[in-house]
Amino acid sequence: MNTSAGTWPHVSVIMAVRNEARGLHATVDAVLSQDYPGALDLTIAAAPSDDGTAQVLETIAKDDRVTVVDNPAGITPTGLNAAISASSGAIVVRVDGHAVIPAGYVRRAVELLAETGADNVGGIMAAEGDTPFEQAVAAAMSSRFGTGDARFHYGGPAGPVDTVYLGSFRRKALERVGGYDEAMVRTQDSELNLRLRESGGTVYFSPDLRVRYRPRGTLRALAAQYFQYGQWRRVVARRHPGSLRWRQMAAPVTVSGCLAGAAVAASGRRWGLLPLGAYAAGVTVASGMVGRRLPAGVALRLPAVFAAMHAAWGLGFLTSPRRLGHTATPPYTAHDE
């Protein structure tokens, strides 16, 4: 792959979509208008949807560069594997149905693959909301208090990392590790990147690759999302002992401490409320720091957003059933992907 000599590899962009009618045109337009000198096509795996996504895809598929394949299982990894199988590019670029990539994204990703020799390159998950609640979620997701030290949430220096957002892969690397694990309904990206690294490959982060992401629009949807993240991160930990990082244990430890303290307080010993009080103080301070330059209507939502993210992730991790990840899992409900 010699981009400096003008030889640009064929790129296949892949997407797995479910109930994405709201923003699908914008996502696809951003892919098809890429400033990329080589061949580029788009393969979309469509899960059963009930919001008009099928009708939107009918229009999109009229473009010769777009292929639509079925994803009857309705879950992300099966859709991504179906899209990979139906495409042929030497480079595979993953894009989400609710993400918008900038005009130079694919070109820079291909350059980085050539420069670094990595199997996968990715960048920043730049959360941006439209409503005050979505903006509060975006601010929380972009803070260390909200999500820990994962560079893809807030940026940082370029270099090898554990995982990245989305990803641009060498097809040979995906074939080497067998693609996405279709039992991993959630956290399939981090699990795949773990296998890439265990096979001797490099996963590379660059702040040059910045993708706009639209967060969940309600507290209930946010909590459901993070509960599932926690459940499935526990599955990865069971499969790959030693893969956990401190940021992934912070929420389960906090939830355990607060629950234990509440039980002690219920027996009449008020000092049991100390863990909950300490966490509440931490949320208050973090909300003040993160929200100091935000509109009041956004900043006031931060405490609930932080608490929902941490409590849901921690509870999901602590209560994750051992059966998860062992067999095929039915698709989640609308907007879970």
Provide mean pLDDT, rounded: 89
Poorly predicted ranges: 328-337
Radius of gyration: 20 Å
Helix content: 40-55%
CATH homologous superfamily classification of the largest domain: Spore Coat Polysaccharide Biosynthesis Protein SpsA, Chain A
Number of helices: 14
| Whole-number total of structural domains | 2
Describe the model.
This protein is an alpha/beta fold and 337 residues long. It folds into two domains: 3-218, Alpha-Beta Complex (Spore Coat Polysaccharide Biosynthesis Protein SpsA, Chain A); 238-318. 47% of the residues lie in helices and 15% in strands. It has helices at residues 24-32, 53-60, 76-86, 105-116, 132-141, 144-147, 151-154, 171-177, 188-198, 219-239, 246-266, 274-291, 296-299, 302-318; strands spanning 11-17, 40-46, 66-70, 91-94, 99-100, 120-127, 159-160, 165-170, 203-213. Strands 1, 2, 3, 4, 5, 6, 7, 8 and 9 form a nine-stranded mixed sheet that branches.
